[in-house]
Amino acid sequence: MQYSFHFGQVVSYLPDLLSGAFVSLQIAFICFWCGMAIGLVWAIALEFGGRPLRGLARAYVSFFTNTPGLVQIYFIYYALPDAGLLLSSYQAVVLGITLNAGGYLTLILRGGFASVHSSEIDAAIALGFSRTQQILYVVLPHIARVLFPPIGNKFVLMVLGTAVAGVFGVEDLMGRTINANAESYRTIELLTMTACIYVALTVCATLALTGIGMALFGKRVRFET
Amino acid sequence: MHFLEIADLSAAYRNVRVLRSVSLNVARGEVVSIIGPSGSGKSTLLRALVGLMTPTAGTVRLGGETVDYSDPKSLRALRDRCAIVFQQFNLFQNMTVLRNVMITPVKIKRRPVGEVEPEARALLTKVGLADKMDAYPSQLSGGQQQRVAIARALAVKPDILLLDEVTSALDPELVQEVLETIRLLAAEGMTMLAVSHEMNFVREVSSRVALMNGGEVIEVGEPAELFERPTSARTREFVSKIIRAK
Amino acid sequence: MIARVLQEAPAFFTGYNILFLLQAMGATLLLSLGGCLVGSTVGLGLTLVRASEAGALMPARVAAWAFVEFFRRVPPLVVLLLVFFASNLLRGQISLFGIAMIGLCLVATASLTEIIRGGIESVHPAQWESAESLNFGYLRAFFWVVLPQAWRVILPPAISFMLLFIKDTAFASQVGTLELTAAGKILTTKGFTAALAYGSVLILYFLLSTALAGLGNWLEKRIAFPGNR
Questions:
Q1: Structure confidence at residue C163 (pLDDT)
Q2: Residue ranges per domain, chain A?
Q3: Is A119 exposed, middle or buried (0-12, 13-18, 19+ CB in 10 A)?
Q4: C-alpha of A159 from chain center
Q5: H-helix or E-strand containing B66?
Q6: What angle do CA A72, A75, A76 make, to 5 degrees?
Q7: For residues A159 and A203, what is the distance between their CA atoms, to the nearest angstrom?
Q8: How many Å lie between the alpha carbon of B104 and the closest alpha carbon of chain C?
Q9: Which chains touch C (3 or more CB pairs under 8 A)?
Q10: ipTM score
Q11: Class of domain A16-116+152-217
Q12: The domain containing residue B133 runs over which residues?
């Protein structure tokens, strides 16, 4: 194999890639919070809604968690214009990742609701907490603590998931890598650098989340990714 | 010459000296109990003996042969002659009681199943669990599990049995059945080195008692001597605490 | 959009196209199963290395750790592209399917190693010690005592991952492999409306995924209940 690695040539792309990484983080952030909103809506629907609403929620979750995000975005970007919805690649990607995340987050949130034990609520009732107080001081903190690791984990996975944006030409980390590659032909070095940036992103995200977890909940919250 | 000779055994765990020059001898057929406060190194001693922790200094001789804890062959030979029963979570949860007892002789010592099975069944009957041979550990009480663990240890036909606080994790009503089994073994002449908190039992069954504290052996003597006329201040302190607790 | 879909449907759902889609679906299935199989097997091997304590294996343990930590944190798309371009350097002609398989196996192995390792670590250390004190040796203790008990902890996240993995295979389309997503793209270039093409692809993925999820559920129930407790 005759190939010599020339990392020197691609280091000049680093600033560009790093700004791309920043865009990736932005996308992850936006999609995460919007996805949480969707997840919350469906999780509440599943918990408190009537039959048809629950059926709708299940259909949504089932569809978005059983099909690839990439194809979902293909559909949004290429098929929806026929129905009148013409989106830019950035918009299509954000919409697609959001809807997708909404499905998974619904599942995670449902798990959290289910984890509250009646004994805790019984204790609160016995101590004279009103319904609102029960929810505020017992139920919500418990759910938050239980949900923090899986939701944090999902966020980190979403950071990796933003790579799909590059397929559609969005100028995120992946997109800029593809552009840079067209110029430089030093593909392996470029891709390796990009891979390392993704690793760095996820490590930083995990550390940040662990820090937030410790600050909010004390030392006991462990992180998986 | 004693059967088990421990001379100046030392061990460290994460830079803490957990055993400090421990010396103790056990003769054939003797039951030596080790007592002492928590953290005194009693369990550590047993674990070091069986090679779960590598000693940093000292020697151990079993039946006249010195054990080389850095040599796998020597370790294997040691474990053929010296079996240990732990405080809890002993039994292999994924195997039936019978298989737990049979697996070592059959798979490790490569003896034929036809030979091992009747022996295993006899052992389980001896510890009073003849009707539980096809049960899984999770279906047994703590006392029953410990008796199976003893049977499993006996299945390798050890020359000496190490018992590491085998009743400490049991509910009070289950302790007696295990002590009964140990009593039986002692009467049959099994050489045993037991760490225990059951003082009455210790007095009744042991030929000698050793008190440990801070990783050292403070005093060794016959039960009556040690409990009634202790020579060391530490021993006096410990004994008085137990007496008061009774 | 619906009007166009209905209009083109008859031309779209020809035997040829349907066969084409099914073949592509077969490729996706193969990639998914192959990735999971290789991932689990190699993952088991890596876990064996990582859980060992032999001093001599330290470099291997570090290598295994580095491999897992790296490939878990890189998007599958990047891994596939790396494999694609790396394979171009080697004179050997690896098929596009092979490239996708290699890339996906790398991703699956990293994740499954983590999951298996988690299961092994969940088994109480006393089980290892009991086995050791009975002269079992590392491998026997691992396979006869610890792994059988680790299954119950390993299986749910493993199945969960495998279902996610099916969706990861879609990225193989970006390196030219002819799997289901690529089939959708090809059909659009043939002139069919994207709604039909990608819509059908979505439905096929849905069917595949729910079928395998059902299989996974069945497996979980069989392994985690009486018979193995």
A1: 92
A2: 16-116+152-217
A3: exposed
A4: 6
A5: strand B65-66
A6: 90
A7: 11
A8: 7
A9: A, B
A10: 0.90
A11: mainly alpha
A12: 4-245
Judge whether residue A70 has pLDDT over 90. yes
Sign of the Cα torsion C56, C60, C63, C68 reads negative
Q: Confirm or reject contact between C143 and chain B (CB < 8 A).
A: no
Q: Do B92 and C228 touch (CB under 8 A)?
A: no
Strand order, beta sheet including B4-13 = B16-26, B4-13, B57-62, B65-66
Q: How many domains does chain B have?
A: 1
Inter-chain touch C206–A67, beta carbons under 8 Å: yes
> Nearest-CA distance from C119 to chain A in Å?
13
User: A121 pairs with which residues across the strands?
Assistant: none
Residue of chain A whose alpha carbon sits nearest to that of C90:
A1
Q: How many domains does chain C have?
A: 1
CB-nearest to B94 from C130, C132, C148 is C148
**What is the predicted pLDDT for the residue at B95?**
94
Domain carrying residue C32: 2-224
Is pLDDT of A219 > 80?
Answer: no
The two three-digit tokens of residue A153, written as one number: 């984990």
Only one residue has tokens 């680093």, namely: A14
Is residue C229 one of the residues assigned to a domain? no
More confident residue, A1 or B49: B49
Q: What was the pLDDT predicted at C224?
A: 63
The Cα–Cα gap between C63 and C68 comes to: 9
State whether the Cα torsion B34-B37-B38-B41 is positive or negative: negative
B45: left (phi over 0), alpha (psi -120 to 50) or beta: alpha
User: Residues with Cβ < 8 Å from A202, sequence gap 6 or more?
Assistant: A156, A159, A160, A225, C73
Query: How far, CA to CA in Å, does B98 sit from each of B91, B112, B123, C43, C93?
Result: 11, 15, 10, 32, 56
Q: How far is C55 from chain B (nearest CA, A)?
A: 13
Test the A interface: residue of C5, C72, C167, C204 with most A CBs within 10 Å: C167
Identity at B77, one-letter amino acid code: A
Q: Can you list the pairs that A148-153 forms with residues at least 24 positions away whose Cβ atoms lie under 8 Å?
A: A148/A213, A148/A216, A148/A217, A148/A221, A149/A213, A149/A221, A149/A222, A149/A223, A149/A224, A150/A108, A150/A111, A151/A36, A151/A105, A151/A108, A152/A206, A152/A209, A152/A212, A152/A213, A152/A223, A153/A223, A153/A224, A153/A225
Of C126, C132, C135, the CB nearest to B90: C126
Count of CB atoms situated within 10 Å of the CB of B16: 8
User: What residue spans of chain B are helical by DSSP H?
Assistant: 42-49, 72-81, 97-103, 113-126, 142-155, 172-187, 199-205, 223-228, 233-245
Q: What CATH number does the domain containing C175 carry? A: 1.10.3720.10
For residues C165 and A40, give the distance between their C-alpha atoms in angstroms, rounded to a whole number. 25
- Dihedral of CA atoms B107, B112, B113, B119 in degrees, nearest 10, equals -100
> What average pLDDT does range C173-194 have in this prediction?
93
Pick the closest to residue C175 from C109, C110, C98, C108 (CA basis). Answer: C98
Q: Is B157 on the interface with C (CB under 8 A)?
A: no
Stretch (H or E) spanning B34: strand B31-35
Which positions ≥6 away from A78 have C-beta within 8 Å? Answer: C188, C194, C198
Split chain B (246 residues) into runs of 10 and give each run's mean pLDDT. 85 88 92 89 92 91 90 92 90 94 92 94 93 93 93 93 92 90 92 90 90 89 84 80 66
Subunits in contact with chain B (3 or more CB pairs closer than 8 Å): C
pLDDT band of residue C228 (cuts 50, 70, 90) is very low
What pLDDT band is residue A112 in, cutting at 50, 70 and 90?
A: confident
Determine whether the interchain pair C193/A161 forms a contact, defined as Cβ–Cβ distance below 8 Å: no
Minimum mean pLDDT range among A87-91, A180-184, B143-147: A180-184
- Which CATH number do you get for residue B206? 3.40.50.300
